[in-house]
Specification:
Blueprint: H1 2-23, E1 26-27, E2 31-32, E3 35-36, E4 52-56, E5 59-67, E6 73-87, E7 90-98, H2 115-121, E8 126-132, E9 139-145, E10 150-155, E11 163-169, E12 189-190
Antiparallel strand pairs: 1-2, 2-3, 4-5, 5-6, 6-7, 7-11, 8-9, 8-12, 9-10, 10-11
Length: 193
């Protein structure tokens, strides 16, 4: 009996640790944390009310900011979810973006990772878009593995390229194919390479 109780306790702890890890897991072409591609938008209510967002023409961005220990907003930690209508009365998740360093892929890369580590984990990444401000002082590079459904963005890295955002999208579709949106970089324009 004692062995059965110990085994049950171990199973409970293992399940709890696994659920906690899943909450911070990035799965290419599938999910970031508990937000899964193609889930109905009404299921996002479990995240609480978004801090900001924008909606038009049956499409919407919902954006949540992280919180510091004192409860203040941490605008460097962003979860952005893009939804679009697929049926007449329901929006579905089409793309998820995250800047928080807590979210990681199974290969342990995410925002804050050196792009050398990201490219090693995802060798099929291709530079697909470059954005720059008019005076060229701010720049974003978007690297995508379209087949897997994951993209990594860098922001103004001069010396060593660092991932600033991870995007999970539908495999076979480019990131931002629904709506290009870069949090904090609203004035950037596409650049020809």
């Amino acid at each position: 009996m004692r062995c059965l109780l110990a085994l049950t306790g171990l199973l409970f702890i293992t399940t709890a640790v696994s659920a906690q890890q899943e909450a911070w897991r990035i799965v290419p072409g599938e999910s970031i944390g508990h937000v899964k591609l193609e889930m109905p938008a009404n299921e996002l209510a479990s995240l609480g009310k978004p801090d900001t967002g924008d909606a038009a023409m049956m499409k919407a961005w919902r954006i949540w900011y992280g919180r510091r220990k004192d409860g203040s907003v941490d605008s460097a930690a962003v979860l952005a979810v893009f939804t679009a209508m697929r049926t007449q009365d329901t929006q579905y998740v089409k793309e998820v973006r995250v800047t928080s360093r807590r979210f990681r892929t199974a290969e342990n890369v995410g925002a804050g990772s050196a792009m050398t580590a990201v490219r090693k984990a995802y060798p099929n990444l291709k530079l697909v878009k470059v954005y720059a401000s008019k005076n060229r002082s701010r720049r974003i590079e978007v690297y995508d593995d379209e087949k897997l459904g994951i993209a990594f963005e860098t922001a103004s890295a001069r010396r060593r390229a660092i991932c600033s955002m991870v995007v999970v999208h539908t495999p076979g579709e480019a990131p931002g194919s629904y709506l290009d949106y870069h949090i904090g970089f609203d004035n950037l324009l596409p650049v020809t390479r």
